[in-house]
Amino acid sequence: MSADASDLSLVRRVQRGDKGAFDALVLKYQHKLVKLVMRYVRNPAEAEDIAQEAFIKAYRALPQFRGDSAFYTWLYRIAINTAKNAVVSRDRSPIEYNIDRHDNDESYDMQGRMKDSETPEGLVLTDEIRTTVNAAIDALPEDLRTAIVLRELEGLSYEEIAAAMDCPVGTVRSRIFRAREAIDHRLREVFEGGLGRAEELG
Amino acid sequence: MSRARPNSGALLGLTLAWACTAALAEDAAGQAQATVPAATTPAQKKTSPALTPAQWLERMNHALTTRNYDGTFSHWHGGHVEMLRIIHRVQDGNVSERLVSLDGSGREFIRSGANLACYLPDRRTVLVEQRPPQESLVGFPAVDDQTASFYDIREVGRMRLNRRDTHVITVSPRDEYRYGYRLWIDASTAMPLKTQLCDAHGRIIEQVVFASLALPVRIADASFRPEVSTLGFRWLRTGTAAPLAPAAPATSAWNALRLPPGFRMSVRSAQVLPGSNQPVDHLVFTDGVASVSVFVETQTAAVAQAPRAQSAAVGSSSAFSTVVDGHKITAVGEVPLATVQFIATQVKAQDLVPAGVPQR
Amino acid sequence: MNEELDSQLSAMFDDQLPPAECELLARRLSRDEQLKARWGRYAVMGAVIRAERGVRLNAPLAGRVSAVLLAEPALGAQSLAGALPRRGLRWWQPVVAGALAAGVAAVSILWLRAEAPSSVASLSARLTTPAAASGASVIPASARERGGRADSYVVPPSPAVPAVVVPSTELANYVVAHSMFSSPVARRNLLSAFMTSEPAAAGAEEPPDDVKSAAQ
């Protein structure tokens, strides 16, 4: 099986007009891309902007992508170029709107990411997510934990993990899946809040 | 069945915060969402009460018409995006609002009480109009039991839109006479932070997204003055004497013989439009979500010269006009062209007193 | 939740699913929001395990990209799948023939065209008021080229602006009058479009000269 079959199947769908398939690619690679871009810009918000731009560029350039390289490799190159360009031409001035702010006002500002004075709820949530996932991993049975860590941290293929753990490939797949299930059980609550519980009613 | 698909990728938004109310919504098939319990975990900073989708729409309309707000938004249509600013104030029962194009035309629309002005710098023209003061919420489309026959209104989930918790409500048309909406309604203020207008096939035709929004307690009068200089502009006003009631009792009235399903007349009035002294009949038809105005101009030389049929689009809204018996009939509304055309061609003068019926 | 499906999802996420199954699952994934959400959470788990510090784990990045893509044309699509409506239709323009039902006469533009001097006169009479300001009449270049008459509109005299066909104030009036009876959202959209709409450039979207109103 092609190592890139997963991405290719999504890419082909996008090339045929399915924008939803591109969402899946973004979800999969967004953290890696932001991390990559942060080698060039320190500010996380700016890095996100650049990563966003890179994804859009990739979407537009997708008709020219033929699968000669892995999708992520191709995306990676676009992201680096975008980051370099952004660093070189830093004339991205956010649009400032003068709006009177009075007491008791409720307001929000999409450009407000540039202002670090307020504590963005996003960062609090990031910590909560991290804590939740780490706690869930700690609570895993050892074979599940080993499987998923070898996969995510070391990037080993199922075959390599099977060799390392001396078990069949099918078992590796099952262990990783069950590890994710266990983590997801707790993670969903963080993302969905109390509404996550509602599903149990229905 | 042609209707907007709530599951389309366009609703992805912040997928990671996708609530499983989506599953509930599908199951409930439009029933009240009252079974969704209020959020109680620490992850939810604010809780919002469980409302039906129709109630959310009502709250949203209420917020838009009664609250003070000042925001900028992008308006996307036809592949073009422009930024605008909107300022809205309700003070002592008086409504002031101002809509300004931030790029390109520099046009402004300002309403203050009964006065309404459109500043069109690129036409070097100002249109000024007086509206009757009692005309505030009369004739607004309002969702009622009938509406569900023509629209599928449901909440498809909760989403965080730039750190605001929103309810995503879809209003999907059940036929091709009307458009649908997807609305991201802020859970705490009920303001629509993002709005999409879709056709019956779910394709997005228009999108408005707020880039910044404030709800100030006070807004100064100066915020409602135009920025454009009107030196050398041509001013078109309504005639100062605006006789709305005809001298003799009307023996006939305009009405539509047939209407697209779900539409009913909600307002009948007459007015004088800027630049003219002729009164124009104005009928409003609505299906609870969309509304269509029909203007009937009585016979004048200009009407006699008017082309047989014309159509136009203003954003996603459509306009169609036709000439019948020396009257020019124009229908305008936030519906597809076929719908305004249908309505315009159905408008006829009807005798108010049918022959043979004794008058009291 | 279907366990087999989720197991496939997990394998596909790791690039360890056979190609044929990938095709099927890709199709489902693109349409199923819950599946996508789960996929997204798998990515988050990976990010935490790799301790990617400084990266926001619930960034709205995916949502923003998705939103921007809405305005992009779908790739490979023949038609404008991004729902781009009748382009260039602004003030009183003919609509593409298919949009009109049979039986309606061909539309013509309510413009002050030099070819129809009578309509020019009547329209000007209606729209000029006694208080009409300076209004130095500037003949639109197009009319000038055709040797037409001046009209009473004041056209921006800037030479950089291409000759424009002047819009109908009448439609503006209707739009504003109607807006008072729309729902608040529709009203805002309508007025926004009105604020940002542009007239068609002369010659760009005019109908061919042989389009005439059917004599009915």
Short description:
The complex is a heterotrimer of chains A (202), B (360) and C (216). Chain B is 10% helix and 42% strand. Chain B is mainly beta and 360 residues long.
Q: How would you describe what is shown here?
A:
The complex is a heterotrimer of chains A (202), B (360) and C (216). The longest helix of chain A is centred in the last third of the chain and has 24 residues, at 169-192. Chain A has helices at residues 5-15, 19-37, 44-61, 71-88, 121-138, 142-152, 158-165, 169-192, 195-201, and one strand at 106-109. Chain A is globular and about 50 Å long. Chain A has 202 residues and is mainly α. With 360 residues, chain B is mainly beta. Chain B folds into 2 domains: 9-224, outer membrane lipoprotein receptor (LolB), chain A (Clam), CATH 2.50.20; 241-351, MucB/RseB, C-terminal domain (Phosphorylase Kinase, domain 1), CATH 3.30.200.100. The relative contact order of chain B is 0.14. Chain C has 216 residues and is mostly helical. Among the domains of chain C are: 3-115, no CATH class; 163-196, no CATH class. In chain C, helix 1 (3-13) packs across helix 3 (33-49), helix 2 (19-31) packs across helix 3 and helix 7 (169-179) packs antiparallel against helix 8. The radius of gyration of chain C is 28 Å and the shape is elongated. The termini of chain C are far apart. At the A-B interface, helix 2, strand 1, helix 5, helix 8 and helix 9 of A face helix 1, strand 1 and strand 11 of B. Strand 1 of chain A pairs antiparallel with strand 11 (204-215) of chain B, so a sheet runs across the interface.
Topology summary:
The complex is a heterotrimer of chains A (about 200), B (about 350) and C (about 220).
Chain A: H1 5-15, H2 19-37, H3 44-61, H4 71-88, E1 106-109, H5 121-138, H6 142-152, H7 158-165, H8 169-192, H9 195-201
Helix pairs in contact in A: 1-2, 2-3, 2-4, 3-4, 5-8, 6-8, 7-8
Chain B: H1 21-28, H2 53-66, E1 69-77, E2 80-91, E3 94-101, E4 108-112, E5 115-120, E6 125-130, E7 151-161, E8 164-173, E9 180-186, E10 192-198, E11 204-215, E12 234-237, E13 252-256, E14 264-272, E15 279-286, E16 291-297, H3 301-305, E17 309-314, E18 317-324, E19 327-333, H4 337-346, E20 347-351
Chain C: H1 3-13, H2 19-31, H3 33-49, H4 61-70, H5 117-127, H6 141-145, H7 169-179, H8 184-196
Helix pairs in contact in C: 1-3, 2-3, 7-8
